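USER: Study each token:
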Amino acid sequence: MDWSLFVVFLAACCAAAATGSMFPPDKWYRDLKKPVWTPKDWMFPVAWTTLYLMSAHAATLVAVMDGSAMGMAFWALQIGLNALWTPVFFGLKRIRAGMVVLVCLWISVLGTLVAFSTVSSIAAWLMAPYLAWVTVAGALNLAVWKLNPDEITQTA
């Protein structure tokens, strides 16, 4: 594995993760109605740290391979959308717009996984838990949207 490439991809993940520090859940989020299956707060940083490490590793494997252009384009798109969701949802308090970002993120992570699978099955498998977690995040965003209709009209 090319460690210098890994550091660059991990730095991109760290930049996306930094939005969580800049826009942490606050009283507004704590006061929202959430489904009973909402993951505990401590699970989010643990999950994202693991997923970012796996994603950076997958990108490092694929980046040096022939035929990796589409996979790397999708990887760049998904990390950008990943960085966008937190300021939209927690910063701007836009639940519906957060859902739009999450749908786009889900599609881009799936695109990354599929494109990676054409050049490296290991890289594709490394992205699979990320797709699963974004699926959970999307379901949670949707549930929060549906459980808090007054928030949509106030912040839309």
